[in-house]
Design goal:
Dna Ligase, domain 1, 437 residues, 39% helix, single chain, alpha+beta
């Protein structure tokens, strides 16, 4: 019989969330955006992926396409910016580094969120601790945050959501009265872990708020929602069942996907994009000490085009797992030949690495084909390839992405995404440093 193991000892978790993170990153280097409606757009300047509070007040919804709120831009002086993921990623890394100076027990949950385990800290006044954390991040990187603190990760998320809604810097759920009030004020659909498909099913059982859910017997939740439901109920009841994951979990697959800046029809143009994707994929694999034995590639047209929709797929395997960019590019182009079909105008393409293994893991040898001479030659090639990839990665990390790149990626590629309103990459590009007069 399986069962759920939950912690019995007292615990205290915090969730740190950057407020309107992408917008806040832009405001760090451009204070003229403060107190104004600001929108950050997705790749190719398509949809809103971040909004300032002022933009939210105008009724601009998340993921809204640019054309749907174009009438508000001029009348309300809405500032529109293209996404600048290099800047956001760098400031995120700095934020996480600062959090680890307060406690080593940090789980990076997303680019702008992190869980902290504060159970072992000697602090008694957690309000003062939260204030110190807020002030430090604001002073060091200029990013305002919201802090939710509670006995479990799920309750901490509830606290964070309520604090953000009421424009509070932090909220601590530390008494039964405060916890019950917060749960009653939280719709069941807003609870961490409750998806759109599950919400209406729970309402059929009379569960409309987090408080309603917390009153259920964990065994009932396990019967209706498997072990995940049982853990959720226990977490809402103040019993910690979700531990802090301080190490990045092993990935089962890695995908690199991009929309094109313009529609592409020619194979060579799409091959350049796939080559660039394979380059990024190789960097990610090596960063995580992973190898892949199988690649799949897709290219597709726009589903909203007047022309017939087409999505092609191709797959290729390697004799031995690899993270060598040259091998990945060669394999990806082979797979693209299976996926590509002439006569279409393609909107995007992607590459997917599967069957991942850790570097150094034992792999099956090639039966009948690996002679001693071949093994020596293969080992020499692998060593040379590893040194070459490491050298290229080191240069690009120091000098910026694509300081060195493979010719197959294209000299003047047509696939680059449209970013007409992108701000400078102030912290990652020497030639885009902020000038102070």
């Amino acid at each position: 019989m399986s069962f759920t193991v939950c912690a019995n000892s007292p615990s205290l978790f915090a969730i740190i969330d950057g407020n309107n993170f992408f917008v806040s990153c832009e405001r760090v280097f451009n204070p003229s955006l403060n107190n104004k409606p600001v929108i950050v757009l997705s790749s190719n300047d398509g949809c809103a992926i971040a909004r300032s509070n002022e933009a939210k007040a105008l009724g601009i919804p998340m993921a809204a396409p640019l054309h749907s709120f174009s009438h508000l831009i001029k009348s309300h002086d809405v500032k529109i910016l293209s996404c600048n993921f290099e800047l956001y990623g760098d400031l995120s890394n700095r934020m996480m580094h600062i959090l680890k100076t307060f406690t080593p027990d940090v789980e990076v949950y997303s680019i702008d969120e992190a869980f902290l385990n504060l159970s072992h800290l000697p602090a008694k006044d957690y309000t003062a601790f939260a204030r110190s954390l807020y002030d430090t991040l604001l002073k060091c990187i200029g990013i305002p945050i919201t802090i939710g603190m509670a006995q479990t990760k799920t309750l901490a998320k509830v606290a964070n959501r309520i604090a953000k809604k009421h424009r509070m810097t932090n909220l601590i759920l530390n008494t039964p009265e405060i916890i019950n009030k917060a749960l009653a004020a939280t719709k069941i659909g807003d609870v961490w872990g409750i998806g759109r498909a599950l919400e209406p099913k729970l309402k059929l059982h009379g569960i409309y708020t987090a408080y309603d859910m917390a009153q259920k017997d964990p065994r009932w939740a396990r019967n209706k929602m498997t072990v995940a439901g049982e853990r959720l109920v226990r977490e809402l009841q103040g019993i910690a069942c979700l531990p802090l994951n301080t190490e990045e979990l092993d990935r089962q697959n890695i995908q690199v996907t991009r929309s094109f800046g313009v529609r592409l029809s020619e194979f060579d143009d799409i091959a350049e994009a796939i080559s660039s994707h394979a380059t990024r994929l190789g960097e990610q694999l090596r960063k995580r000490n992973l190898l892949t034995q199988t690649l799949s590639v897709f290219c597709k047209t726009s589903p909203f085009s007047k022309m017939s929709y087409y999505k092609g797929n191709g797959i290729v395997g390697f004799d031995a797992p690899t993270n060598d960019t040259r091998a990945l590019i060669k394999g990806a182009i082979q797979a693209l030949k299976q996926a590509y079909q002439a006569g279409h105008s393609f909107q995007s393409a992607g590459i997917h690495a599967m069957n991942l293994t850790k570097e150094g893991a034992v792999t099956q040898k090639q039966l009948f084909t690996e002679t001693s001479h071949q093994k020596i030659s293969l080992t020499k090639q692998q060593t040379q390839s590893k040194k070459l990839n490491q050298a290229i990665d080191a240069v690009n990390q120091r000098q910026g992405k694509n300081a060195l790149f493979w010719a197959s990626n294209g000299i003047n590629p047509r696939y680059n995404v449209k970013q007409n309103q992108r701000s400078p990459r102030y912290t990652t590009k020497w030639d885009e440093l902020l000038l102070v007069g």
